[in-house]
Specification:
The chain is α+β, with helices and mostly antiparallel strands and 141 residues long. It has helices at 43-55, 94-106, 111-118, 128-139, and strands at residues 2-5, 7-14, 21-27, 33-36, 60-68, 73-80. The strands form two sheets. The protein has a four-stranded antiparallel sheet with strand order 4-1-5-6, with helices on one face. The chain has a two-stranded antiparallel sheet with strand order 2-3. A hairpin with a 6-residue loop joins strand 2 (7-14) and strand 3 (21-27). It is globular.
Length: 141
Amino acid sequence: MARLPGYRLAFDKRSLIDGSGKCNIHTCEPQSAVWGVVYCLSPAELARLDDEEVVHGGYQRIEVEVHDHSQGVHQVCTYQAPAELTDASLAPYDWYHALVIRGASHHGLPSEWIRRLQSIAAQHDHDRERRRLFDAFLAGL
C-alpha cells in the first residue's frame, strides 16, 4: 500500500475499446494524494504490462515517488493518459467502477479513500455481453 502525494485520481481517460472513462492521475496541490498498491515485477512482466497499457491502452509510463505506510519513499512507475485521450465529462462503467473499489478494499486501502471512490458517479454499460463477462469476473473475485 502506498500514497502518491501531489496527484488526484480521475476517470477521465477515454478507453480505446469502449469509450468509457478509465482511471488516470493528474498532478495537483501537494496536500492531495492517490492511494494504490506497489507491485514488484520482473522485466518480462513489466514488458507485458507496457504492452497492455501503452501499446493497446494508450497510456504513457511515468516515474513517480510514492510513500509506503512507514513513510519510506520509493521510485516506481505508473501509467498516465496523454492529454489528447482525456475528457473530464467521461464516467466509468459501473462494472469498472466496482472493480476499482473491490481492488482498493481487497488491498486494505484507507476507508476514507474507498469512500471517495464510492462517491464517483458511474454509468450503466448497455453492452450485455461485456457486462456478463465482467459480472462473472467480479463474482469470481
